[in-house]
């Protein structure tokens, strides 16, 4: 309850509800919400109370699984437990719910890996790979993670060494089968298992693209956590981003968080008691594309007009970012700007009896960190795919024809004017919630 109150209800996201309910907020929440301690990495979702479990199986009619670790290079064992087998645990829980109408699983559009062209809303079948290598055995992947972890412990490796090795293992296994990182690989395997094990259960898989700040509800501009493009915006606004790696023509597929939620709600209603599997891409790249050049231009306009004030009370002056459109250009830039000075510092340090050791190690760590980030994000900086949303469009039309309040449950990206959204909603939201 303490976590629920501090990590959920205390967030600014709920201020509209607080203003509406006033002193009745707690009684309203107690009528609507039952907080259950658990762990999706365990059977029965880690719920220990047998009576509570029986009550849930008797009363629950919709299960929505949003639980995930979204770190691109998460430890392989952790990512498997949550993203892959956690999805199975949630499905098995749903199978025990006597009143179940629909099971909704939230995945990511980027389970497609680095596919190019039009990417359809189709399932991944058990054992399928993206690069056509030998069939993927998901149970074997769990064994590989367990065996590696066991061996590291036998070798009495430090916790830091274990963490690093398990992170590297995830990236290696993902790339062996054609996925760029641990996150999308383990999410794809989760989808495979759901499709294989669903039986006659109504299953909806929601695949959002890059989720951005709220468009309207509960108010415009709310965002939590620095993700993908927002990390670039924060670095740029604070004057730390002077160059950018990426193809200027690459489409950045954004979708506001409230549109994703609305699509989920409408899909729940549409697929209740229908024993099939339906996949929805929730994104904008097909119907309302925005390329990275537009993103850079909006950032320049906004932070020129509304500069960030640094700790010394001075405005941070931003300018046009140097765009490096190929990896070769990026490597040349890094070599001239950073690696050569680092080599010079290394020689100077050796000549001065390690006097500059701390400066050298600090610069080395920063360069290593940047190169790691580039390795993880490169597939998306040069992404050539567009996500087909024909199923989602059909859902929008069906909702309209069924007299669903589309002004409340809106999720049409064509209604977004990107300039207005970035200048008036998204970037102000980032400054308010992420510039701390």
Major beta-sheet overview: 4 strands, parallel
**Unreliable segments of 5+ consecutive residues:** none
Give the strand order, joined by hyphens, for the main sheet.
1-2-4-8
Quickly count the helices. 15
Give Rg in angstroms: 24 Å
**Mass-distribution shape:** globular
What is the terminal-to-terminal distance? 27 Å
Give the total of beta strands. 10
Compose a concise summary of this entry.
The chain is of the alpha/beta class.
Give an account of the 3D structure.
GO terms for molecular function: alcohol-forming long-chain fatty acyl-CoA reductase activity; alcohol-forming very long-chain fatty acyl-CoA reductase activity. The protein is α/β, with parallel strands linked by helices and 436 residues long. The protein is built from 15 helices and 10 strands. Strand 1, helix 5 (76-95) and strand 2 form a beta-alpha-beta unit. Helix 5 (76-95) runs parallel beside helix 8. It is globular. The relative contact order is 0.12. The model has no long low-confidence stretch (mean pLDDT 92).
